[in-house]
């Protein structure tokens, strides 16, 4: 039996999903780790934690399963990066996806990047790269700039300096023309930018010594990866323009498959390439974190059952834990609006769920107003996907069917890439 391994690296742990040629899950594994942030020594050890997590995770897979794995792919958090020497050893601290120290070099970013570009963010890969060139205490000449998924794959295949065009989007890679733009190639830096290939592209076999150590076949190949959010989209089963995935996690994240590309830095909207189509996305600060601020999981479940979902709540909130949002309203000083709060907890929760659904609907309306394909269906991922009352409210507000995804684990979507699923399989409607 030929099996395919997808590995998802998140902020608190990693997960593996192994599928067969038909896409049926044959095994799963998880490994939790604590990201160490603080001193230089601790930060450098973050990469060591990743490596230990990777090898431990694969070791948890039953040996008889490992022996049948023909290909492996990784996904990592977008814009999590690490700078390595010529042997692949990290020489500076890994910078996590939400590390905002790039704010110090934003004037440099603005001076070289086109207006309204995705890299115009303090947390972009490019901002981190420029920050490293200005602040590294280590010798960075002839070093290699890699994303998290790139470095993890390198640990298995040993080919340094290869990335995919999903991870490279926020580095400034031109995903439409599939090349580095001149303004990026002309940067006067002594750091090697990665060679970019399509997600899922076979790179190299697992190193013989690693194959022996982990009990993998000598002909097991490592493929180019993707980001965690793209992997989750692939896992959902959405394949046609107009289909979307809403992630109801701590925040609210929308991704709509579109014929046309939409980028608008003002709202934090950018597009990933998926074959001949575009995955247009935006994220709001509202979401599950606000709900859990007021209710426990048990309360959310019990109170939701009592909501009259066929009736729209008259309460109009903008649920935030602190001021500021970017999408679908761009206002860094937007105040949370959680008043009036009724004495009845069911009414209050109804108002919160209704209001978040209105923001979701407004987000999809904005994507379409800016040129994205008309919305037809929404798949739901994240913890909020389990709430049937919220689902009914959202369907009423958005006006399209709300569907359950085929799979919710990002690792499953990455396993599809390892299996040979090509982004070109996602085709425009005829």
From TrEMBL:
Organism of this sequence: Symplocastrum torsivum CPER-KK1
Documented EC number(s): 2.7.1.47
The protein's name: D-ribulose kinase
Lineage: Bacteria, Bacillati, Cyanobacteriota, Cyanophyceae, Oscillatoriophycideae
Every Carbohydrate kinase FGGY C-terminal domain range: 247-418
UniProt entry tagged with the keyword Kinase: yes
Swiss-Prot/TrEMBL cofactor(s): a divalent metal cation
Carbohydrate kinase FGGY N-terminal domain span: 3-234
Annotated family: Belongs to the FGGY kinase family.
GO biological process: xylulose metabolic process
Keywords assigned by UniProt, alphabetized: ATP-binding, Kinase, Nucleotide-binding, Transferase
One term under GO cellular component: cytosol
Top-rank taxon: Bacteria
Reactions catalysed according to its record: D-ribulose + ATP = D-ribulose 5-phosphate + ADP + H(+)
Classification via PANTHER family: D-RIBULOSE KINASE, SUGAR KINASE
GO molecular function: ATP binding; D-ribulokinase activity; D-xylulokinase activity
CDD domains, A to Z: ASKHA_NBD_FGGY_SePSK_AtXK1-like
């Amino acid at each position: 039996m030929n099996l395919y391994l997808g590995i998802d690296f998140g902020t608190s742990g990693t997960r593996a999903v192994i599928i067969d040629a038909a896409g049926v899950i044959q095994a799963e594994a998880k490994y939790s780790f604590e990201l160490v942030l603080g001193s230089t020594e601790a930060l450098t050890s973050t990469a060591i934690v990743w490596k230990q997590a990777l090898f431990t995770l694969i070791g948890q897979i039953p040996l008889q399963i490992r022996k049948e794995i023909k290909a492996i792919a990784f996904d990592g958090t977008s814009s999590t990066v690490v700078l390595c020497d010529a042997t692949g050893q990290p020489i500076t601290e890994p910078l996590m996806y939400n590390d905002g120290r790039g704010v110090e070099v934003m004037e440099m970013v603005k001076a070289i990047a086109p207006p309204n570009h995705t890299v115009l963010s303090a947390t972009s890969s490019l901002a981190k790269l420029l920050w490293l060139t200005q602040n590294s205490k280590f010798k960075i000449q002839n070093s290699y700039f890699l994303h998290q998924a790139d470095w993890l794959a390198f640990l298995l295949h040993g080919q340094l300096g290869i990335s995919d065009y999903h991870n490279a989007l926020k580095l400034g890679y031109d995903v439409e023309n599939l090349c580095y733009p001149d303004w990026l190639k002309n940067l006067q830096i002594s750091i090697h930018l990665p060679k970019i290939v399509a997600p899922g592209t076979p790179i190299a076999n697992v190193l013989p010594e690693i194959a022996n150590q982990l009990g993998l076949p000598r002909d097991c190949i490592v493929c180019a990866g993707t980001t965690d959010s793209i992997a989750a989209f692939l896992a959902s089963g959405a394949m046609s323009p107009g289909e979307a995935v809403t992630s109801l996690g701590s925040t609210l994240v929308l991704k709509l498959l579109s014929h046309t590309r939409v980028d608008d830095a003002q709202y934090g909207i950018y597009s990933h390439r998926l074959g001949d189509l575009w995955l247009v996305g935006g994220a709001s600060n509202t979401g599950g974190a606000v709900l859990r601020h007021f209710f426990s999981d048990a309360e959310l479940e019990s109170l939701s059952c009592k909501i009259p979902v066929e009736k729209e709540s008259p309460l109009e909130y903008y649920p935030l834990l602190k001021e500021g949002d970017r999408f679908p309203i761009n206002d860094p000083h937007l105040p949370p609006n959680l008043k009036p709060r009724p004495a009845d907890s069911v009414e209050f929760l109804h108002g919160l769920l209704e209001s978040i659904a209105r923001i979701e609907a407004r987000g999809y309306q904005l994507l379409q107003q800016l040129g994205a394909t008309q919305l037809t269906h929404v798949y739901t991922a994240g913890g909020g996907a389990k709430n049937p009352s919220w689902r009914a409210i959202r369907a009423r507000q958005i006006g399209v069917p709300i569907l359950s995804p085929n799979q919710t684990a990002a690792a499953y979507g990455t396993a599809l890439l390892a299996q040979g699923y090509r982004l070109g399989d996602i085709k425009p409607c005829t």
